[in-house]
Design a protein that fits this description.
The protein is an alpha/beta fold. It contains four helices and seven strands; from the N terminus they run ααβαβββαβββ.
Length: 181
């Protein structure tokens, strides 16, 4: 089993993942990324970081769906899914690396082609958001993408790291599970 994360007790006061995440919620975001970019040109698996993966009892639904979407398009992907805690007995998927990590206490280190940081900031202690956001952005590799939630309307903002820093390239609405064209 690829899960090497230390399992901490699930704290239901932090977040009830069943109410905030579900299969289909972010599929249109991954579909847009795949349609808009030639990830096959990389010649190596895409490095994908999912911060705040909202684990449930057996998996993290949106993270698992990301793996499925990339595989459906024949794009190899290595996914690291991070959350502050995982439910007791969490099983996960052997093809996803799950890691217990508190982003407020310690920055994540690494370079990723895609970093998903969706619906996380509202769960951070006040005053930590700018520092944590900067630390998360530092994980986006040159030419890579950051997906984050807009504070204004909860749409999904997709940024690309270029020579001048992070540039907004696309905003997709939050479909709340509805199919998008």
């Amino acid at each position: 089993m690829k899960n090497m994360a230390r399992r901490s007790k699930y704290d239901p006061t932090i977040l009830d993942a069943r109410k905030t995440t579900y299969k289909g919620r972010l599929k249109h975001v991954d579909d847009w990324l795949i349609r808009s970019n030639d990830f096959t040109a990389k010649g190596a698996p895409i490095q994908y970081l999912d911060v705040g993966c909202s684990p449930q009892k057996t998996d993290a639904p949106t993270t698992l769906e990301t793996l499925e979407v990339f595989r459906e398009h024949g794009i190899p992907v290595d996914i690291t899914a991070v959350d502050k805690s995982f439910p007791h007995g969490f099983t996960g998927n052997d093809d996803i690396y799950y890691k217990t990590h508190d982003i407020v206490r310690k920055p994540i280190r690494g370079q990723f082609d895609i970093v998903r940081y969706v619906n996380v900031e509202e769960h951070l202690p006040p005053g930590h958001v700018p520092r944590v956001r900067a630390e998360i952005e530092a994980n986006v590799a040159e030419g890579g993408f950051l997906i984050r939630t807009s504070a204004k309307d909860k749409s999904y903002e997709i940024y690309r790291r270029g020579l001048g820093g992070m540039e907004l390239v696309k905003t997709l609405r939050n479909t709340k599970g509805k199919k998008t064209p």
